[in-house]
Specification:
Layout (H helix, E strand, L loop, with lengths): L19 E3 L5 H10 L9 H12 L6 E9 L12 H8 E14 L5 E6 L1 H21 L7 H18 L1 E5 L12 E2 L4 H10 L60 H9 L28 E2 L20 E2 L14 E2 L2 E2 L13
């Protein structure tokens, strides 16, 4: 939409002057309207005749339009009369203010619109209401701060500037509401638009936003190497591990070397004090062909006298000594208890290296 150039009389605080009228052709509805409001019959057959008649009519001091009406309180809210009857409250507490304006611009060529500017009396009434009533109510609704009075004064000055600059523009068809002496009223519900626009100029007093307070957190102290308290538990070294009696540790096999103490323990322990977990991986005796005596099976005595810790050991099967096996058939295929010694390689003990 191209910018609309308004005359100087539409500026803020500008005095009233003759309206700026721009016509390009004769509109039938405009011709009938001008004939209706003119007491003296005058010819309206051309564009210049319409232009002269409309300019003279709108330049009259009585050409004041009523744009809308506002229902405003007569006093601040704290001073209003309280009554059970809402009709009584309305009569004593509220007043009707007519918003009046005059036409400053008529464009029926490009924008096809008409512009209205508020009269000085209407502007003064609205400025007084804003200062005496609206400012008091909005100040009472906010908390106090150091610059509250300055902000309230600025709010009043801004409203005074805005209400003086206020110009209402609508379609040129609004001239159908024109009456004698150039006065008139807005038709087709346009009054509600003016009411909403003017009430939108009454802004509330906004307090400043709360300041953001930076929370200062204390700097954590770093652990010192000379401090009395340790921040962590030191790892237990090998030399600080608790000592254990060598006789409490039993290796899995007598052939396993576990230190001098363990070796001396095995050397001093008798055969009847040992607890064999499995037969030896090899035989130290030499096979002979002589049969001295019948087979004498042996069993390793299982005693837990020298031990204090309960140990669970699988039962050891009773096997004859290797030297007695030669009294029977002396060959590698000899069977014993259903076991074929020719397949001993298939059943290698788990501890054989």
């Amino acid at each position: 939409m191209p910018p609309v150039l308004l005359p100087a009389s539409a500026a803020a605080f500008a005095p009233r002057s003759a309206p700026n009228v721009v016509l390009s052709k004769v509109e039938p509805w405009l011709t009938s309207t001008l004939k209706r409001i003119n007491r003296i019959k005058r010819p309206l057959n051309s564009v210049p005749q319409h232009h002269r008649c409309l300019t003279e009519t709108l330049s009259s001091p009585n050409a004041i339009w009523t744009l809308c009406s506002l229902m405003l309180p007569k006093a601040p809210e704290s001073e209003l009369r309280k009554d059970e009857n809402p009709l009584v409250e309305g009569l004593f507490n509220y007043q009707m203010v007519a918003v009046e304006a005059y036409i400053v611009h008529v464009d029926m060529v490009s924008q096809h619109e008409v512009a209205f500017k508020l009269t000085p009396e209407t502007i003064e009434t609205l400025v007084e209401y804003h200062k005496d009533i609206h400012s008091v109510d909005t100040a009472a609704a906010t908390w106090h701060w150091s610059e509250k009075e300055v902000q309230l004064k600025k709010l009043q000055d801004d409203f005074k500037q805005a209400i003086n600059r206020f110009v209402y523009r609508t379609h040129a068809i609004a001239l159908e509401g024109l009456e004698e002496d150039g006065a008139g009223e807005l038709l087709r519900g346009k009054s509600e638009e003016v009411r909403s626009a003017i009430m939108g100029l009454f802004l509330p007093l906004l307090p400043p936003p709360p300041r953001v307070v930076d929370v200062v957190r204390p700097t954590p102290l770093l652990p010192s190497s000379t401090g009395a308290q340790n921040w962590w538990h030191p790892t237990m070294s090998q030399s600080q591990q608790p000592s254990m009696d060598p006789w409490r540790v039993l290796p899995s096999s007598p052939n396993t070397t576990s230190g001098d103490a363990t070796s001396s323990m095995w050397a001093s322990m008798g055969l009847n004090e040992m607890q064999l977990s499995s037969p030896s991986s090899s035989f130290s005796e030499t096979y002979t062909t002589e049969c001295e005596s019948p087979p004498q099976p042996y069993s390793a005595p299982m005693t837990t006298a020298p031990y204090t810790t309960a140990m669970t050991t699988a039962p050891v099967p009773q096997l004859p000594l290797p030297s007695t096996l030669l009294q029977q058939q002396c060959s590698t295929s000899m069977g014993y208890g259903g076991f074929d010694w020719g397949r001993y390689q298939d059943f290698a003990p788990p501890f054989a290296m």
